[in-house]
Design a protein that fits this description.
globular, 8-stranded antiparallel barrel, Dna Ligase, domain 1, 665 residues, 40 strands, alpha+beta, Rossmann fold, 17 helices, 6 domains, single chain, D-amino Acid Aminotransferase, Chain A, domain 1, 9-stranded antiparallel sheet
Length: 665
Amino acid sequence: MFKKILIANRGEIACRVIRTAKAMGIATVAVYSDADARAPHVRMADESVRLGPPPASESYLNADLIITACRETGADAVHPGYGFLSERESFARALEEAGIAFIGPPPKAIAAMGDKIESKKLARAAGVPVVPGFVGEISDTDHAVRIAGEIGYPVMMKASAGGGGKGMRLAWSETDVREGFEATRREGLASFGDDRIFIEKFVENPRHIEIQLIGDRQGNLIYLGERECSVQRRHQKVVEEAPSPFVTPEMRKAMGEQAVALAKAVGYFSAGTVEFIAGADRGFYFLEMNTRLQVEHPVTEMVTGLDLVELMIRIAAGEALPFGQEEVTLTGWAIENRVYAEDPYRGFLPSTGRLVRYRPPHEIHEEDGCTRVDDGVAEGGEVSMFYDPMIAKLITWAPTREAAIDRQVDALDGFVVDGIGHNIDFLSALMQHPRFREGRLTTGFIAEEYPEGFTGAPADDLLVRDLAVIAALAGAATDLRACAISGQLGAPVRPPELRVVRIDGQEHRVRLEPFEGGQLVTVDGDNGGELIGRWQPGQRLFKGRIDGRARTVQIARRGRRWRLTTRGASHLVDVFPAHVAELSRHMIEKVPPDLSRFLLCPMPGLLTALHVGEGDKVEAGQPLAVVEAMKMENILRAEKAGMVKKVDAKPGESLAVDAVILEFE
């Protein structure tokens, strides 16, 4: 067995590998860029080595630096995680030549299956059905337009070495190809060091199903069931689950055996994933093979009881698999949500900055359910513009799919992130969506269900009423503290006071009367309710029960108002004593300024292109500028026709959120 493993990665996957290695009694080495000098994975490892500046090309993608770090620390093996160098044949070969074990598949398998173009050729040769498309190399935009026209729109343009949703563009017309082809090439080069692109037919209303494989050097190769990864945004997975609510036992067997046959054709061992798209008739097509550990591997671990990282390490050390295909069983249901630094209320724009507050849910491992958090961040740390915006992965397991979903909703209610935008409300809304709960999924789910963007999960009248009670509790507790500190609001102890609560266009009159362990509640004259639970000013979470209903609500002060967040939405709430509520009706509402004559930078990023100048006329929908953030290019378009009055930014400038790029007449 290895004595010391270097993890050639960062963030949550580096922490994940370190935990398993430590449990096996293996020493660990972390590597880091300057942006990650104080990151959790650096603190967790037994040793750490600085690689270089923040850009990945000068740190995590530099194979020579990593091999040098292995020699300096005496590491005899490298786990690449996912992304970065994990699917680089040249990296695996360089380690082999240096006498360092690569915890992953053989270089020839990486070359054959990691290359999306070559893997499709191999699949065709093996008789595996593939999506119609062009699997050769494409020289330029005009060539891409000709190919797309021959295949028939819509088509998908993909980076050959791509993954994780990067280097992908959906094109519905020739205009889309001309606008997106070069951007796709640049994203592929920036993220994977390879600008080759292939084009394939986009199968409408598909489901994304993938098969997890594990194989040893002795020739044993088995499948560990499937994962449903259909809930995606911009071709990047958001929610994954195992098993799939769509796959039958017969379909699972057919897909698994086909995946194994394909992997055996290239002498594959270690962990790997074969991805398929499936139609409503349960027919399926080979999509690609990822020759590495997947981001969503925890859901497979939860339903199989296996540690995939441990198996990868043991296989790399020459050990055989300790079980066969017939011993693999799937128990219960697991769901994973990816918590990202992006703002769903602003079109999912990336968010960077400091994690002012980071309080993930507590991990729970019980017979009737589990909650697991895989993360690589810490309170006070920074989400950088240089890397993927993932904050954490929230994984739940339960005996049934419905119970696993409910555990997700409960855990998300208590997941506290401050300082940056995040998608926790959106994930909760997905978990509560009737169509998701029914399992009626396609890769177009998010676009179909949120065509106008995300504005928060809808709240029923009962939830709004309960939030009004909790807001009244927060207001009362804050007033009582003010009394105790300065006496400015009257005597420290006062009789129950009626409070008027305005929330979501509704007004409720709430009276609270304390008793041991809770409050007697009267709402709009309706007596007899009970609130069980306490809250003190400064606490972020309220956990309690209202008339027997469990509620976990995040409470924050926003000026004179309160922000209550739960069940996938934030609610701004006004709480007044009754006499103040009457006076408040006469307050003049402040109208926000009109910013429609400006093109504002929607996220922190680099202005890479500007397509117009002063005096130019623009039409609605016309591309105006391109901003690169977190390795993704974002095209900014004109919302309406007009004329450019002034240009306020130049290509090459780093812009803050809401920085002015253009002004219009």
